[in-house]
């Protein structure tokens, strides 16, 4: 086969959501606002958990890590999109695209694992309350977060290494706002069979595994709460899980559906729009979900920002 059209390309083109000039100012303002809310909202959660001694517990330790990862996840994609809109450029270099793909894969994986870790934390707190402080000791909490980082980093490194072996044709365009792993695999000119197989396997293992853990934890939580005789006790038990369940619902209902549908090239544009939900919207909503439904967080934020909050 003639390989003159297969080269070590230097750049890709991110087409984003719309190529209409009149919509660019609106998109820039919208995503800049969402990004600023995401960064400042999650920073407030982190500062509140660090400065308030009442929040020095395993649950808020995991929450502060989730907030940090949400900032990183949005920062991986949104700033580059804003720069492209402002400069009327759609270009991203090959190295930049590979870096963006690697870090987005890393932080999505970390979100996935941390949600499972937080579900386990709630399981121990509700099902084994007398053993909670012994079981969820600082050493175990750090090890759970560290293990999430290591597994996610290896997962990202594996896919990055496999993408490096692919060849790409010239004049490549993503009908997307960032370099997504599955889209990079699909537009390659060389054989991508191995990449597809690894993508399916890792999606099943690293995506399905934590989800099964979350479902198992909450099935045990529901069984334990049903055994509580007082209605007030049941309400208090469920209220500690409500925020986490809302975040889990948002993350999995968007990311899993998007990830599986992205193997179809016919759904690329719809996939780009849906990806906004778990890459941008969910990290922005997390601080509101946890602060609005959590008296301890609201109290910590009031003490941090003053009585006028």
Summarize the topology.
Elements: E1 6-7, E2 11-14, H1 24-51, H2 58-87, E3 91-93, H3 94-127, H4 132-135, H5 138-164, E4 168-169, E5 173-174, H6 181-186, H7 193-226, H8 231-261, H9 268-292, H10 295-305
Helix pairs in contact: 1-2, 1-9, 1-10, 2-3, 2-9, 3-5, 3-7, 3-8, 5-7, 7-8, 8-9
What does it look like?
The structure is a single chain. The protein has one domain: Rhopdopsin 7-helix transmembrane proteins (Up-down Bundle). The longest helix is centred in the middle third of the chain and has 34 residues, at 94-127. The N and C termini lie far apart (67 Å). The chain contains ten helices and five strands; from the N terminus they run E-E-H-H-E-H-H-H-E-E-H-H-H-H-H. The model is unreliable at 1-7 (pLDDT under 50). The strands form two sheets. A three-stranded mixed sheet has the order 3-2-5. It has a two-stranded antiparallel sheet with strand order 1-4. It is globular and about 65 Å long. Helix 2 crosses helix 9 (268-292) and helix 8 (231-261) runs antiparallel to helix 9 (268-292). The protein has helices at residues 24-51, 58-87, 94-127, 132-135, 138-164, 181-186, 193-226, 231-261, 268-292, 295-305; strands spanning 6-7, 11-14, 91-93, 168-169, 173-174. It is mainly α and 309 residues long.
């Amino acid at each position: 086969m003639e390989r003159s059209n297969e080269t070590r390309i230097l750049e890709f083109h991110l087409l984003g959501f719309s190529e209409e000039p009149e919509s660019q100012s609106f998109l820039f303002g919208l995503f800049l606002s969402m990004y600023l809310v995401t960064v400042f909202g999650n920073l407030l959660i982190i500062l509140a958990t660090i400065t308030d001694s009442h929040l020095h517990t395993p649950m808020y330790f995991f929450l502060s890590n989730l907030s940090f990862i949400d900032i990183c996840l949005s920062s991986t994609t949104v700033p580059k999109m804003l720069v492209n809109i402002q400069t009327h450029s759609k270009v991203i270099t090959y190295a930049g695209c590979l870096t963006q793909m690697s870090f987005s894969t890393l932080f999505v994986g970390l979100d996935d694992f941390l949600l499972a870790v937080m579900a386990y934390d709630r399981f121990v707190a509700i099902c084994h309350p007398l053993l909670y402080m012994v079981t969820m000791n600082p050493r175990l909490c750090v090890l759970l977060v560290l293990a999430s980082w290591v597994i996610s980093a290896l997962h990202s490194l594996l896919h990055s290494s496999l993408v490096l072996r692919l060849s790409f044709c010239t004049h490549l365009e993503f009908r997307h706002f960032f370099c997504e792993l599955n889209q990079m695999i699909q537009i390659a000119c060389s054989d991508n069979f191995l990449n597809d197989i690894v993508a399916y396997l890792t999606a099943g293992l690293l995506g399905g595994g934590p989800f099964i853990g979350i479902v198992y934890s909450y099935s045990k939580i529901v069984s334990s709460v049903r055994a509580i005789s007082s209605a007030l006790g049941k309400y208090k038990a469920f209220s500690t899980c409500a925020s986490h369940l809302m975040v889990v619902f948002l993350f999995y209902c968007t990311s899993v559906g998007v990830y599986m549908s992205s193997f179809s090239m016919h759904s690329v544009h719809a996939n780009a729009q849906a990806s906004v939900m778990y890459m941008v919207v969910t990290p922005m909503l997390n601080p509101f979900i946890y602060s609005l439904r959590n008296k301890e967080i609201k109290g910590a934020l009031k003490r941090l920002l003053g009585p006028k909050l």
